[in-house]
Design brief:
Layout (H helix, E strand, L loop, with lengths): L28 H15 L2 H20 L4 H8 L2 E3 L2 E4 L4 H8 L4 H10 L4 H12 L2 H10 L1 H15 L7 H7 L9 H10 L18 E3 L16 E3 L17 E3 L5 E3 L4 H8 L10 H13 L7 H15 L6 H12 L10 H7 L3
Parallel strand pairs: 2-5
Antiparallel strand pairs: 1-2, 3-6, 4-5
């Protein structure tokens, strides 16, 4: 019937389509072993560690430059623990205060190495910057080119007149409207012209790819039907990275993004025997976007693009995203050599040269 809108029917067979406790690792055993060993090697790699330090140090310095308070920065880089459950890895309160006061990259890197801070801690401390609407807003207001591009995007999509400047938009519309993620939403989904599963918003289509859990009540963090949890053991690939939290249970990727079981995306991943954790990596794309295009804390060289990818793989893999999920979106984002799912992921990464 013309004009009639299609509706989604979730019958008894589909009530469990986002079950977070179903095993979705389709890799052959030898592939899993090779990938785990590759990640273990990355976590001990000095160049990757130094680059993770550089990312966090420069981001902290840029936060100060754009006018964010020390209290804001400390909240971003600290670990977040609820009871005995580790929600977000980072620094202790004392260590966060110490690193926030360091003024040179050399001292920052040395302090982190001497105090056995890990790549996972460094990258987890960084990630909350890239998803912070406050951080992004301050970066846009600090950089006239970013502000101009932001306003051009708003005018293009919302058709506001040229007579409305940024100040008027901010004070009369944005500050008085609902929605917490507006700046991030505009920059990531409207402004970017890159055609991967994140920027086309295809990654959040729960009919084909996955469902994004927007409202999470951390008071229910022990509910294993709502939170995907992992108890650390000495057999974990990342145990040495998380020894300070060895008595803790981790909140991991499927808590926030839940691939649709038997959906088109997961069935493609299954066909090529890839691991599925939480779907195409948006965090890897936003890291690239934030570091090279928003905060602009370092140049977009081939070496920097590859090292950022390796930092993402070292940190996110095992618990938050599979290596395939990271490469799948990052390659288009960064312009690195083309990738397809019939490739061996470790071999693809090892062939990247700078």
């Amino acid at each position: 019937m013309p004009g009639k809108r299609a509706t989604r029917k979730h019958n008894k067979k589909t009530t469990n389509i986002f079950n977070i406790n179903v095993n979705t690792d389709f890799r052959d055993k030898n592939v899993k072993t090779a990938e785990n060993q590759y990640v273990a090697n990355l976590l001990e790699n000095k160049e990757v560690f130094d680059f993770a330090c550089k990312i966090l140090f420069l981001t902290i310095q840029h936060s100060k430059k754009v006018g964010l308070s020390k209290d804001f920065i400390l909240e971003v880089i600290k670990s977040w623990i609820v009871g005995d459950i580790l929600v977000k890895l980072g620094y202790t309160e004392q260590d966060a205060n110490t690193v926030c006061n360091i003024t040179t990259l050399k001292e920052f890197t040395s302090w982190n190495r001497e105090n056995k801070i890990t790549i996972c801690q460094l990258m987890s401390a960084y990630y909350k910057f890239e998803t912070s609407n406050v951080f992004l807003q301050k970066c846009i207001e600090y950089d006239n080119d970013l502000k101009m591009k932001f306003m051009e995007t708003i005018r293009d999509y919302f058709k506001i007149p040229k007579s409305m400047d940024y100040s008027e938009l901010k004070h009369t519309i944005i500050e008085k409207s609902n929605g917490y993620w507006f700046y991030l939403w505009v920059v990531t989904f409207l402004q970017s012209s890159k055609s991967n599963l994140l920027h086309r918003r295809s990654d959040s289509d729960d009919e084909y790819v996955r469902m994004w859990i927007k409202d999470i009540d951390y008071k229910q963090v022990s509910d294993t039907s709502k939170f995907k949890l992992h108890k650390l053991t000495k057999n974990d690939v990342k145990y040495n990275q998380l020894q300070n939290y060895s008595e803790k249970t981790l909140v991991i990727g499927k808590t926030y993004q839940r691939p649709r079981l038997d959906g088109i995306w997961i069935n493609i991943m299954k066909k090529y025997k890839k691991e599925v954790i939480s779907g195409p990596s948006g965090s890897a794309c936003m890291s690239f976007q934030n570091i090279f295009e928003v905060s602009k804390i370092m140049p977009k060289t081939n070496k920097n693009k590859i090292l950022l990818l390796l930092c993402c793989v070292a940190d996110m893999s095992i618990y938050y995203h599979s290596i395939s999920e990271i490469i799948q979106t990052y390659v288009k984002e960064s312009g690195l050599p083309d990738y397809s799912l019939d490739m061996d992921d470790v071999q693809y990464l090892e062939k990247l040269k700078f």
